[in-house]
Amino acid sequence: MGAMNPEPSAAGADTARGTALPAPSGLDAAWAHPLLGRLLRGQSRQQRLDRRHPWLLDTVVVLAIALVSLPDVFSGGRGDGPFGDTGNRSDLPIAVVLGFATAAIVPLWWRRRAPAFTFFAIALVSLAQWSLGIWQQSSISILVALYSLALHGSLRILGWAAAVTLVELVLAVCFLVPVERPLPGIFFLMGTATAAVAIGLTLRIRRMYLATLEDRAARLEIERDQRVRLTAAAERSRVAREMHDIVGHNLSVMVGLADGAATLAANRNEHSAEALRIIGDTGRQAMGELRRMLGVLRAEQQENVRLLSPQPGIRDLDALLGRVRAAGLTVTYRTMGDLDALGNGVQLTVYRIIQEALTNTIKHAGTGSAAEVTVAADTREVRIRVADTGAPPGAGGRTEPSTGTGEPGHGLVGIRQRAAMYGGAVTIGPRDTVGGWIVDVVLDVPAAPAPSASGEHLS
Fold first, then answer.
1. Is residue 244 part of a domain?
2. Is residue 4 part of a domain?
3. Sheet containing 330-336: order of strands
4. Does the residue 185 lie in any domain?
5. Structural domain range at position 456
6. What does the pLDDT look like over 249-304, one tens digit per residue?
């Protein structure tokens, strides 16, 4: 037995597994082909050269047609026509024939800048020389002009140009410069004119298709950048809201504690009163700096934020209320329903709404007021209600919190944004019957798949 190869080749392995290698795309295959690839690369180089020096190609076209027309010019236009000997022969001087050839070739210099003018000028010159019995190779200028009009000009004018070409060719072959075989002549000339128009329209459609692809790619890139910016803006807004809820609340509690302790120390004539007032003023200054910093964060910051601790939930409300009570605010807390069955996102929303509402109470109603917090959950919705008694008599009225620029504060905006995530309804404003303010939020979120018996907790 012959030796066996223990490892099959890569192609054999792919065949054994039934996996076929992906075929190259059509464009990649064309570029990989030795002949087509060379043509495509040559076309790319020609297009780049044409974009840098547009006059160069026009000059080459003009010189090429002039060289082709030289034999007819030197023969005085007395050569045979394209389909045998012509019945009409002209004995005009060479200067006249040269003038007709020049008039038919020179307008091609403007064939891309003014295609309609170029075509009709050449058509008029061609008709004039055919009427004198002159048939030159320079007449191919009308085909080049027709091609340029199909590629660069107006399509409506192109229809008129095609009709003019048809009439001129029929007149030239049948009447002006009669040929031995008129029908094949007309067929051949109309075929070349149609080919010129078809090539021009094909290249025009190709350019339009490529321009559409480039425009689509540019728009997709713009949309991608916009999505990145919108995502970054949403992340910055979320981070700013979290920082406002956490840092702003803690600073408000610290300022309240410092002010209360300063007042108590001043009543006792203790030396620490001034230091406590400085602490309160420093805290208020820090809160102002925090607002300015959050404004910059909402507009410019693009750094990623890592969560260093678990997000708070319903169970963390006791600790929050303990800090608020320590600041001097009397808080009554009631719950109804199975709050532990709520999702983490809903619990975080409930916590932040209560935190912001109590922070506003401390800042605007003062530590001498009282607040009542109620959280109720059932099978269809969660309701958060935070009501305070307002500022004590003689402490002045209360207005809606703001940033100092005439716009509502970020805290109330944050409450509305958090509630909107769960299709909630928000009511914020002064209480009707008694003094103080109320924050009433209803979240359209089911409390639990199988709710337990509701109970009431009072602390």
1. no
2. no
3. 425-430, 437-443, 382-388, 370-377, 330-336, 456-458
4. no
5. 312-459
6. 777 777 777 777 777 777 777 777 777 777 777 777 676 666 666 655 554 444 44
